[in-house]
Amino acid sequence: DLYLTQLNQNIVAGKFCQVIVSPEIVTSLSFQKSTLSKPQFTSRLRCVCIDEAHCISLWGGSFRPDYADLGLLRGRIPSNVPFVVASAILPAHILDDVRTKLGLSLKATEIALSNARPNVALSCRAMQHSEESKADLRFLIGKDASSPADIPISLVYCNQQLTCEDACDSLRRWAADVNIPTDCIAFYHAKVGQAQKRSLEECLRKGEIRILFCTDAVRMVRE
Question: What domain range includes position 95?
Answer without folding.
Answer: 2-102
